[in-house]
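Memo to structure team: turn this sequence into structure tokens by end of day. - J.P.
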Amino acid sequence: MNDLEKILEENENKPNYYAIITSDVRYDKDLSSSEKLMYGEISALTQAQGYCWATNNYFAQLYNVDKVTVSRWINKLRDKGYIIVEMEYADNSRQIVKRKIWIRNPMSNVSISNAPTSSEEPVKETKPVKEEKYKDEIKIIIDYLNEKTGSKYRYNTESTNRLIRAKLNDNYTVDDFKKVIDKKVYEWGNNPNMQPYLRPSTLFGNKFEQYLNQKVYVDPQSRVVSVPWTGEQINDGEIF
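Reply from structure team:
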């Protein structure tokens, strides 16, 4: 029995959820019909658990395409900002054990229009709510940091939000933040002098790109992951 048959069998007694394709996706000329259909399928699957849990193999069997094609569709939807993709990895490795896909809240990027719809009364200008932009992504990132470090950082702290929003505006992804967190936890997590720097102001500051591109080495025998020391001198209170 293949993945698709297993999933269909597991869900045969569950309600059939309907798909939603929002207008911004429906009329996006940069998306193919297949990518729009994929968005609709993801929206349907999110109604069961709040997120889409299906694998590329499931979608490939469903649409009779290869997994590379499925991956390209999902990446396109993610890059366009229509979905959020979160990967869960096995401990001390980059092996993906689970993927979650959320439909992004359309209110995260509210468009602004000054054009009136009639000659009688102009439409009131609708501005994006500052607190809403990237709200979902910020929560995922901070929850992941707290999980990996045992911390209790709040995702509604404005200074933290400002750092994360700036990087997301520069087209960094949630996965990029997770890679930085993983690398610095591996490097600093067992060093009492460095543990205090596993904080948003350090990890997501000016050296974010440097940390993201830092090389990680995996011992082929022990599978121990190590990150070479960068030679940085860190002064208490310094944000970098």
